[in-house]
Design a protein that fits this description.
The complex is a heterodimer of chains A (392) and B (508). Chain A has 392 residues and is of the alpha/beta class. Chain A has helices spanning 12-29, 40-48, 113-119, 133-141, 178-188, 211-220, 246-252, 265-275, 324-330, 366-370; strands at residues 53-64, 67-74, 91-98, 101-108, 121-127, 147-150, 167-173, 195-202, 225-231, 240-241, 257-262, 285-288, 302-309, 312-319, 348-353, 356-358, 373-375, 379-381, 385-389. A six-stranded antiparallel β-sheet of chain A has the order 4-3-6-1-2-5. In chain A, strands 10-9-8-7-11-12 form a six-stranded parallel β-sheet, with helices on both faces. Chain B has 508 residues and is an alpha/beta fold. In chain B, strands 9-8-17-18-19-16-20 form a seven-stranded mixed β-sheet. Chain B has a five-stranded parallel β-sheet with strand order 11-2-1-15-21, covered by helices on one side. In chain B, strands 12-13-14 form a three-stranded antiparallel β-sheet, covered by helices on one side. Chain B starts with 7 loop residues before the first strand and ends with a helix. The chains are: A alpha/beta (392), B alpha/beta (508). Bound molecules: flavin-adenine dinucleotide and FE2/S2 (inorganic) cluster. FE2/S2 (inorganic) cluster (FES) is lined by residues 337-340, 342-347, 375, 377-378 of chain A.
Chain lengths: 392, 508
Amino acid sequence: MKVKVSLFSLSDKLHFKHLKRDRLKKISLSPSTPLKASYKSEEIANIYHPYKQHLIITKIEELSSDIKLFTLSLDKKYPCKDIAPFKAGSHINLIKEIDNGIISRAYTLFSSPKEALKENNYRILVKRKEGGIFSSYLIDKCQVGDTFIVSEPAGFLTYNRLRDENDVIALASSTAISGFISMGYAIADKIEDFNLTIICGLRTEKDNIYTPYVEDIEKRSQGKVKFVFVISDEKSENYEQGFITKEIIQKYARTPYSIFISGSQDFISYITKEIAPLNIIKKDIRIERSIDKYMGPDINKEVNIKVHDRDEIINIKGTSKETLMTALERNKILIRSNCHVGGCGCCRVRLITGEVYKTIFHGVREADQKYNYLHACAIYPLSDLEVEIYHY
Amino acid sequence: MDKTNFDCIVIGAGNGGLMAALRLLKNNKKVLVLERELVPGGYATSFKRGRFEFEASLHELCEYGDKDNHGELYDILEEYDLNKEIEFIKIPEAFTVYDKNGKQYSFPTGIDNFINKMEEYVPSSRPSMEKYFALAKECTLAMKYLNASHGKADTKVLMKEYPNFMNVAAYNIKTVLDALKMPILAQELLTTYWSYLGTPSKKMSFVHYTLMLYYYVVYSPYIPKLRSHAISLALANKITSLGGEIYYGCEVKEIIYHSGEVQGVKLVDGKAYYSHHIISNASPHSVFGNLLTEDIPEEQLKIANSRELSGRGFAIYLGLNKSKEELGLNNYSYFIYDTLDSDKQYEMMKSLDSTAQVVVCLNSVNPTCSPTSTTILYFTSLLFSDAFDKEVTKENYYELKDRIAKNYIERFEKTTGIKIQDAIEEIEVATPSTFYYYTASRDGSIYGYSTEGLDNMLPRLMTMYDEKICKGLRFVGGHSIRSSGYNSAYISGDIMAKLTLGDMKEDK
Ligand SMILES: Cc1cc2nc3c(=O)[nH]c(=O)nc-3n(C[C@H](O)[C@H](O)[C@H](O)COP(=O)(O)OP(=O)(O)OC[C@H]3O[C@@H](n4cnc5c(N)ncnc54)[C@H](O)[C@@H]3O)c2cc1C
Ligand code: FES
């Protein structure tokens, strides 16, 4: 079709030609003042997502023979003025260089999110784990004044009022209660608003080291937060007996409710079976995962790993018993990490050649699979490997 | 050459940076791409939550198409053999838009279908619509001619071949549609896509908007099956296979500049890499605000100060535990406005109270994008002021995020009558702070520089050869000559790399 658009005047075509002149003129008339170095939204982003936090242990409280509460504050040697805020239920990732390499582990924050910002520190509860290098290090060696590199807080076991029910039943074993205590504080401090019933499995009465926190939270939360401890290894009138069962859950739950679960791998397998008959829909169950180990026949196999880090090549040794991340860290090659379960993607690497075992929760993007990008914290080498890494 | 010297350093592996690197590599240059994130793509990425993999940004790819009917982007990807490598899905509809009373208008692709539909909604709009698409076609041809003439367009040719283009090129949408005597409602429906460019009818160039609409209607919108991350990875993979280097987790902290030209870059970790040519996917506002702050050539500051950041982004990503059929989500894209008058809507979007939104249901065209009986739904909106910056504090950030998200979701439910709140299994909310965090884009603006007035695509392209550059430094991406959008960011990378190749010749 032929069109003819006539507009207003003969000068329309001239206007077109003048676009160039007008734009150049506009530029020449603009000021040459300096540009803004920062915007508020950027400052917020930088506060919430610091690249690295340098923290120092300022207090260690011994709560029992194998549980300690650590307070981590900002290391004044570094310019950063504020710790990164967090949502209750988040964890931080602690990184430390020790004699034979680097170790990094995620610990759920125990602190009240509000108090933490006021006092500018994080608190984490550490329990000695049998054979656990990092927990033994923290319990036995770590002292006030020791420093750590710490990631920004992160995590998926946090409350969201648009997603979760008004009532939450939180199930934990032992010190995995940390994140729920933090949620309790958040409710007591009125920065979150939901009903939280925390059911925590312990072995003996003596394991209940939480009384001061429980009392404080229950008192200030005006009935919104309730704690139930379930004791398995001895009889006691003050507590529920045995393991956490669906009956106990039903006793305290008000439907509809969401279930949050945190604990050891054994606890998670037990509890997920236990709650199955409750027919709670998938979306209302959130679980803090922990990693499954490679248990194959060739578990002691030693492998050579060729590591590309930008333009450098480093050759290291690993075994099928430990993750690629552990192998890197033992050789003092630090990459980013956060969740340590394969889900967050901080520890992304590219596998150039070789075979690996991927754990159940190793979750990469679909297109990553095509180009062999993997999460180093959740893969075990099965053969010699060649990998590309991005150091931290 | 040693390991720290390169023919060109590309700052940022966003769409523009990736494409620029490819063009240079194709010309046998030694190229280093430095990206602060661990993934390529910038906005063109995806992320996982629970059992969902969300698309971070892309709603619809423009200027693409198929073998027989396609735009420039298809040709570029073909050159690198990537149309085969990446699986694309054609979107069979243009858009669905709701007016403030919840009345729904759905438009198909294809010029005739589009015009017919408009006639149904707005009787007697046909003549003006036919004129519009004829004019649109002339505009696309004229732009091709202008681009091919490298800034030396012959006025005589333009006058003879593209007289209508010449008549309208300097005007905004509203003025031209009025001149075409298009009924107001038809005008408003036709400009539904305005929020994809972020500039309303009276401030937006007719030609710029029209090119976008025309390409969507004629070539259809597309998406890659495995999210935009699949395009980004394919481009990155091509770069490596052509011998280029991409270093991830490498934030450039400083551009080394002295003796009147760029010399290289310094990373946050102190390491330096050298080159006399830098292509930056970081915007002029980032570069001259933070990366190159001493002895900035005056005209660079003037250029930057003559421009405004585009809208700040706000997005909500939902993983729903019901199928789209159960929920009643029948369309791919839902444009929900407070008013169809884009100029009024634009003003309203200067406040956090506006809940105008564009919502995409990915499963509508990509049924396997999430597990059976689940749906991915994501919301995008823009803020045209510092409304977010004024309200956000360190203390209220989470609360503010949730509050805004809730308003958007409720607005969607109210307008469409589709209930989604009870089905939310995963939710992620992105604010301007989030967008800044993932791409370093100033103040979380997501569409480069605003395309208002003299900063739309046409004058940008027309002055491309006249604006002074900081010697050795060129910009690609949403802030560059073609403005934002995937297609424009990619194409800007291609064009700017060609100019850089020219600069390299001049060196000799
Ligand atoms: C929610 C949303 C929806 C959108 N929908 C669409 C759509 O449907 N269709 C469409 O066409 N467009 C859409 N867009 C716009 C589109 O995403 C952008 O226009 C395009 O991706 C911009 O690309 P870019 O090249 O400017 O790069 P960016 O994505 O801005 O990337 C810049 C890159 O540079 C890196 N970088 C920055 N500074 C440094 C530094 N100092 N050192 C190292 N690296 C650095 C960043 O990390 C980033 O990777 C959408 C955007 C958003 C946010
Ligand atoms: S640290 Fe989260 S995936 Fe490895």
